[in-house]
Amino acid sequence: MASSGYGGFDQLSSALAETFRPYVDDNVFGSNMVFQEGWDEAEKVDPGRFLALPIVSGKNQTAQAFGAFDEVNSSPQSTNSVAAFPWSFYQVAVTMDYQTLTLNRGPNVRINLIAEQLQIGIASISDVCGQDLCQFGAATFGSKAGATPNGVPLFGIVEATDDGTVDNVYGNIARTGAGSFVNWQGNDIRKLTTANIGLAANDAPLSLFYALYNNSTQGTAVPTHVFSSRQGVAAYMFALQPQQRLSPGDIANAGFAGAYLFAARVLGDDHILNPISTGSATGAIGCNFFAINMNHTRFFYPAQKGFDFIPWVEAQSRVARTSRYVTGLQFCSSQPRTGGLLTNVNSTSNL
């Protein structure tokens, strides 16, 4: 019989099966560079109610030169403190009905749907973590992902580089005001305004990128990464283009994977939001750049790194089962002064 459509009441359909590739292409999850760059270097710490990072918060002011029979300073000194961060916990649930669990097995299975759903669950946790790492609960930087009433979303690069404008109390230590610790601030640069996005005044200037790197450098501690959106990376490459040489080849072919600000890699993360103009060029897109030293700003995890699998349990009042992946971690800085921020730089659409 003649075939109508794709498969059906014909001899060929009864003799041949569909051809499936054994994997599924990802059309959902975009770049998640902050999470990927930080995860490999995550540091294990002992479990506790809070993540406590001891820091030096002052000099010993009794250090002095003295002469014979001089009275010397011996006043008590407070030179240490501790930054305390709550842990963040994330979960994702995978629920499968009885029919799917039963049928997705045996020789006719082309794709292991159960394993795929579990892998998508892990990717989904990573994606939500990536959003929380790159955004803050304010209009300037978007908002954290959804959380339960008692949930604590991850801290991220916004809080780590802030000068106290967005997040003044960080790790239970104030950055400005009474009893504050001034060295607990990121070296925040706000020389470009939202109102000028789309105008020549906010074109990507190399001088400000150099200042961002310089102000975030403390001795031998220099930024290791600069994170922006993909448009931000392109805008930086546009500014850098006149400085490129035609040789060697790795410089001549510089692109998204080859952008550097001195020793710092410049990477685009799709979770970093682009600011929008509020001035005469309303609707024009700008870019944010976060300079991070990931030797001091990193992931911490208690006891076990990774995603704990909670086995399948019966769903209440349904012929189905639910499993979960759970993880506990925190991302924070022990030296925020090694970070910096440059805001409202024109994207390539404005240049």
Overview of the molecule:
The chain has 351 residues and is of the alpha+beta class. It contains 8 helices and 15 strands. The strands form 4 sheets. The protein has a 6-stranded mixed β-sheet. Strands 1, 4, 12, 13 and 14 form a 5-stranded mixed β-sheet that branches. The chain is globular and about 105 Å long. The relative contact order is 0.19.
Features:
351 residues, alpha+beta, 6-stranded mixed sheet, 8 helices, phage-related protein like fold, 5-stranded mixed sheet, 15 strands, globular, 20% helix
What topology does this entry show?
Layout: H1 11-15, H2 33-39, E1 43-45, E2 50-56, E3 80-86, E4 88-97, H3 98-103, H4 113-134, H5 157-161, E5 169-170, E6 173-174, E7 187-189, H6 206-215, E8 225-228, H7 230-240, H8 249-252, E9 260-261, E10 264-268, E11 286-292, E12 297-302, E13 308-314, E14 320-333, E15 340-346
Sum up the overall morphology in one term: globular
Q: Beta-sheet strand percentage?
A: 15-25%
Q: Spans of 5+ residues with little confidence (pLDDT < 50)?
A: none
Mean pLDDT: 85
Q: CATH architecture, please?
A: Alpha-Beta Complex
Structural domain tally: 1
What is the gyration radius calculated from CA atoms? Answer: 26 Å
Count, helices: 8
How are strands sequenced across the largest beta sheet?
A: 7-15-11-8-10-9
